[in-house]
Amino acid sequence: MTRWARPGGITGTPSVPVREIHASGLSVQRGEVLVPTVFGDELTERVSCPAAPLVAGSLQRKGRQVRLAPAPRYADSGADGDAVLYLATCPRPGGGYTAIAAATPRGDRLSAAVAFAAVQEWAAVAASRVVLAAGSPWCNGALRAAEIYRRAAAEHAGSGRTVRVLGPLSLPPETAAELDMLGVVQVTSLADAAEGDVVLFPAHGVSSQVRAEAAERGLVVIDATCPLVAQAQEGAGRLASRGQHVVLIGQRHAAAAAPIASRAVGQVTIVENTGGTTTLNVTDAQRISYMLQPGLPVESASGVISALRSRYPAAQGAPPSGLCYAPSDRLATVRAVATGSDLVLVLGDPQSSDARQVVAQARDAGARVQALGSVFELTPALIDGVTTIGIIESTSAQSGLAAQVIAAMGGLGQLSVVRRQVRTEPPALEDPQDGAGRHLRGGQTQAYRSATAVAPAGVTGPRMAST
Questions:
Q1: Which one of 224, 268, 347, 449 is CB 3.0 to 4.6 Å from 145, fit for a cystine?
Q2: What is the value of pTM for the model shown?
């Protein structure tokens, strides 16, 4: 028997109809709800259910035991069926359809009511949508360091040497887990290191004192310092050797600040804001240079530079090619996504500092924002009436979370995915750690946005345009 039920929808407007099918061939245990990831029947080919995690999340929030699994072919057998399948379908461009579905065992009325409601509420918000997806939150320097860590850990695995990496670290969650499995020890000092141990210097670099200590202890050093940070350290040292007083515009407690300042001991002042320029004391007003700490948006230094030059007209800055543009690019990307979206989803741990910062930046751009730690947390009410959704990953987001959210959204109707990214490209900077002279590209003081719409999502999920 097939019963058709037309949901009223969250907004009160009828949407995709939901069928109730008494089916044979579906194995569902009492007390659980089966949410098919794919299914088939006696008449059709197997059908994909990309929105299955969304249905599962609704059921979990209602306290039901959920099993996400492929469903075999079934037969619509009327009242004698083994299970009750609730099913709504969304057409795909070019033919075919995707499904929103849940199944319960025959006679389990409570599970049946909850399952029907879950399918109904997602069917009610099925619609054509656009996703604006920001690029990766990780800069080249961090990704380069992560690869160096992996290679070092693999090379020294089973050698009997302890591999230590100096923190604090900023790594993708999956990379941190991989290093832990390979036995890499994260430390904040070299106090427990023994001669012959391997020590990895982080992307933000280490102080001159730590370098000297590693040499004295006879440690095997693998340096993963970001080339831009290394350039800033060397620049501070050169300026100090010429008798210049170095003003480092940055944050005193940032990981990269101390390593840079250690190259100009006694001749460096860290200035965090315009107020810091008023207390600055230098012996020769004609010998003063300033530099921006890598990891901060370039724009954040403009007020400090103006105040510094007002007081010290002879102050000179570093050339644009030596600046770190990744933070500026990321901030501009967040704003670009936020201004073009009805709703912005910030992916990752909502309590992480990076996620909180991105949420605040998106809200400052006027967007409605929701932090999302898992695809299962997405709710129908959140996307009801929304036609353009921005997706921005924080550094705490698990690898693949953005793809999971996009794929699930593709199960609710036609979906177009647009990548929106701002990227600055100064001249190529040679990587001092690569003997082959590999270059780490940033690009030229030129920003561009890529906003290429791709074909609507198919059964296998939406495709992401590349920049």
A1: 224
A2: 0.84
